[in-house]
């Protein structure tokens, strides 16, 4: 492979999320979130796993800061648990919760690591879901209030504020296919959720601009690279339709101040979009310092012939209800391998393609890779070594793909590896391990996998050999 050299100011980071690592689900005044409720509902997660204890980061954060420093990370992306800092999702803030994040941020700064805070990585306070969740407008207003509380408390000690992680998942997996919390299967509610998440992003973005003008503002999207099974007009139209739901439903209002007309037309039988009020789209279009991109694998679609069983291999979990609203005429085809332990195909070329597309369509918009990584079944050797060569190979190929996109002009400023630690992988519980640091869930002992050593060397040299 060719050697790629990254500049000194390229940001090397790693990422986690609150519910996936913190545990301490009922401590120090934390309220319940939709993920507590969902994971405690029988049948929802693999083996009935919950985030009650997770990687116990709430108690072991000092040790984890040590790993972050030893790896030499320039930046660390974590998320703030809304129900930990504002238990009911409105009104009173919880001092103990805010103090936890304040100590974490100070600890990062003391070690010369930039704090990158995500305001929302899927853990909506349960009380707000009981009042309608993201399907109702009021939740966006509550989010604005929450954002003001955390930005006031942490301000510009946080280098980059990220409003949302993957609103696509919150809306469609949470409210259409139901494979994520709150587990609803209501297509119209899913589209309303798309809008209220977008609106909340715009409102919170304006809070950051006002209260922490020195901080950077971003959002993280899981953009899909969608390939057609053939170049027939029907297959190309399937790509267009899925691209509207997956990508342009967010990119449109956020970067261009309007929902795409084809999205509204495609979904007209489900909703008239009357929840979009005058002025909302310009609120959503708050200028972003960086657009965060999460990438794992690619998507292959075909127009369904209506006769053969419809293939639904979209990689987003099994459900009788589809995540793809008003797209019954589209099928998702299994992809050629190799695959990770998630069953996701490994396709680094699609990563380059995605970054070059963003560069072409949104010129001048700086980009940041906010997640990329892989789950594999790790084996602890008799000597205690975890020789995770397949993970290293995956990372190598995808970081090379980033270098290639940069060479093609894409303004990619940094790369955050998912994930620092093995953690609670949502519906898959503790079964799927994404960490470069292994967590033994019986003892909570952390052990560096070979990929962690590999990443440390890459960060130190900036050279991908
Ligand atoms: C992303 C999520 C993250 C993690 C990875 C594997 O969709 O943002 O929390 O689960 O996938």
- Please tell me the overall pLDDT: 98
Structural class: alpha/beta
Largest sheet: 8 strands, parallel, barrel
Bound molecules: beta-D-fucopyranose
Please characterize this protein's 3D structure.
The chain is of the alpha/beta class and 465 residues long. It contains 15 helices and 15 strands. The protein has helices at 18-21, 34-39, 57-71, 82-85, 95-110, 126-130, 138-154, 167-175, 187-211, 233-256, 261-266, 280-284, 348-361, 389-407, 450-461, and strands at 4-5, 11-15, 75-79, 114-120, 160-165, 216-221, 226-228, 290-294, 299-303, 330-332, 367-371, 412-418, 437-440, 445-448, 463-464. The strands form four sheets. It has an eight-stranded parallel beta barrel with strand order 2-3-4-5-6-8-11-12. Helix 8 (167-175) packs antiparallel against helix 9 and helix 13 runs parallel beside helix 14 (389-407). The chain is globular, with a radius of gyration of 21 Å. The termini are close together. The structure holds beta-D-fucopyranose.
